[in-house]
Amino acid sequence: MENPNSNGENQTFRVRKLEISDKRKGFIELLGQLTVTGSVSDEEFDRRFEEIGSYGDDHAICVIEDEMLEKIVATGSVMIEKKFVRKCGKVGHIEDVVVDSGYRGKQLGKKVIDHLMDHCRSMGCYKAILDCSAENKAFYEKCGLKQKEIQMAKYFD
Ligand SMILES: CC(C)(COP(=O)(O)OP(=O)(O)OC[C@H]1O[C@@H](n2cnc3c(N)ncnc32)[C@H](O)[C@@H]1OP(=O)(O)O)[C@@H](O)C(=O)NCCC(=O)NCCS
């Protein structure tokens, strides 16, 4: 029987939660393909990992590992916001979605989004939202999202 996580090129992918050992599997370098990460020491990584862990299921980071190479090749995160509107409803905020440049076009990005959406649903969210560039709009539409409103931002330097 075909392995549902294999892409037929002898690569086996595992979708799972971020683990503390993932720093040495290239997790920060992967995020560096999305934006500036700066240098993150092992101590800083461990401290931030513990801090995020203390939020339990309210902050989930999904990764996909190429198990043969022990390399993190895709990731995305979601934070669950607790609100008063919609009968004290919850909203999932999806962030930091990136697939390693050598692994794009293999449905891994979609797998990350599906995983995060399942998490939002299981947490009782009434919606999940994210911001993206125009060039990624078609990808998110393939993942079942629709364009809504416009994004506003203010950066604090
Ligand atoms: C955007 C990104 C996450 C997509 O990941 P991916 O693994 O290559 O995408 P998938 O293989 O899962 O694609 C799923 C579907 O979306 C389509 N798709 C993916 N990227 C697309 C794009 N830029 N434009 C149009 N369609 C796209 C695929 O063709 C595929 O369609 P299919 O199911 O009909 O075959 C990846 O290109 C990436 O990491 N880019 C750089 C970082 C980034 O911009 N992240 C998003 C931040 S908002």
- CATH structural class: Alpha Beta
Mean pLDDT: 94
Strand/helix succession: EHHEEHEHEH
| Major pleated sheet | 5 strands, mixed
User: Can you list the strand order of the major beta sheet?
Assistant: 1-2-3-4-5
CATH superfamily: Gcn5-related N-acetyltransferase (GNAT)
Number of helical elements: 5
Domain N-acetyltransferase: 13-157
Catalytic activity: D-glucosamine 6-phosphate + acetyl-CoA = N-acetyl-D-glucosamine 6-phosphate + CoA + H(+)
Subunit structure: Homodimer.
Keywords: Acyltransferase, Endoplasmic reticulum, Membrane, Transferase
Tell me about this structure.
The longest helix is centred in the last third of the chain and has 15 residues. The protein is of the alpha+beta class and 157 residues long. The chain is built from five helices and five strands, in the order βααββαβαβα. It has a single domain, classed as Gcn5-related N-acetyltransferase (GNAT) (Aminopeptidase, 3-Layer(aba) Sandwich). It starts with 12 loop residues before the first strand and ends in a 15-residue tail after the last helix. 27% of the residues lie in helices and 24% in strands. Helix 4 links the parallel strand 4 and strand 5. The site of coenzyme A (COA) has 17 residues, from strand 4, helix 4 and helix 5. This is Glucosamine 6-phosphate N-acetyltransferase.
